[in-house]
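ARCHIVE CARD
Drawer: 12
Card no.: 0347
Subject: one protein chain, sequence and derived structure
Cross-reference: see card 0346
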Amino acid sequence: MLTLSSHSAQSGTDATEEHESGVATVEANQDHPNQTDFREFQMKTEEFKKKFNGAVGKYRLNGLGITVLKMKESPELGTTIFDYAFNDHLRMVGVLDLDQRVQEVRLYGTGDVSEPTGGILLTAMAALILTTNSDYTYNDAQDIIQDIGILDRDVSQIDFDGATVRNGCEYRFFIYDNDISTFEIKAAH
């Protein structure tokens, strides 16, 4: 079971400035770099931020509120991305489609992947699931995280790559570059 984290993170504005060098670069789904058929999100960044903060407030997910999403152009993707650092160890990056609607979101957590997944990362995963599925409850978000397999007792995060598909979304958790825990939500194919 997920437990709610009561530890406060740094404010997003301060963390964004301090995290300027970045944890990882956004790697686009190269099979569909300009994907415009992703209907599950269908929201602009301001609505995404409001829904995310709404889930954070409703379930009292302390330390996860979004203040300002930093927008930038991505020449590799031919579109805009947003970036938000919750703290020095947790960052969110989203890819927008050509209509400036969110089409994919990733959470990047840094730290020792041989240690159990941190509570703030799991809590952020739940908040992101709730943001993209307005009819879900916190229990539904927990079920998705459980289905991915990351909460299994004997799971080794070092070589973990698990995914599940629900409502046309693929939810995936994997380790990037041996030290970055990555959770992504994108269209299922």
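Annotation on reverse: The two ends are 29 Å apart (CA to CA). The longest strand covers residues 79-87.
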